[in-house]
Amino acid sequence: MLACQWRRVAQEEAFVGRTAEAGDELGSRLVTARLARELMRLWFLFTRTYWPYTKWFGSAFRALPDSQPLSDALEAALAADDHRGREAALVAAYELAARRHNDLGLTVKVDPATRAFYGRPYRVLMADRFVDACLAKVDDPRLRRLPLVGSVDQVADSTDLLDDGRLSRRLAPLYQA
N or C end of the chain: which has fewer CB within 10 A? Predict the structure, then answer.
């Protein structure tokens, strides 16, 4: 699940800057909010705590151990008036999450510093490095063959789906290697 959650960060971390370059301010704000949620979910996984549905998500996150610095960074990202402010706050959040990952000792240490996105003028963590570190620890060949989509909660956030075991079991073919 940890590799899958890092993948979700990796898939969108460059989009805050890319949407801004395209003149899509609303899109940049939306991506920032999505990344905030993904980083919060990552923190839940770090603390081995199940994340609740949306109504309680923020309150439960704030109750997690050592979540305040990440909360502050994410609030700054969400409150920023432009993509540069959002990026600066997200950089702080990325590096906090990266350091926490390393502190857990679950994988080899990965450099927690952000960097330019393939020469473009915005900073990202290149979170796929954390995905790779997590996957390197998976020995079971059946698990290695599974798609890197994560748990049902990582794939979908429909309350109707998640609250109905019969309905969510229809996703079982996703998890057959």
Answer: C
Segment 88-124, tens digit of pLDDT: 999 999 999 999 999 999 999 999 999 999 999 899 9
pTM value is 0.94
How many Cα neighbours within 13 Å face the side chain of 141? Answer: 0
Which residues make Cβ contacts (< 8 Å) with residue 133, sequence separation at least 6?
107, 108, 110
Domain boundaries, the chain: 2-137, 141-177
Three-state secondary structure along the chain? CHHHHHHHHHHHCCHHHHHHHCCCHHHHHHHHHHHHHHHHHHHHHHCCCCCCCHHHHHHHHHCCCCCHHHHHHHHHHHHCCCHHHHHHHHHHHHHHHHHHHHHHCCCCCCCCCCEECCCCCCEECCCHHHHHHHHCCCCCHHHHHCCCCCCHHHHCCCHHHHHCHHHHHHHHHHHCC
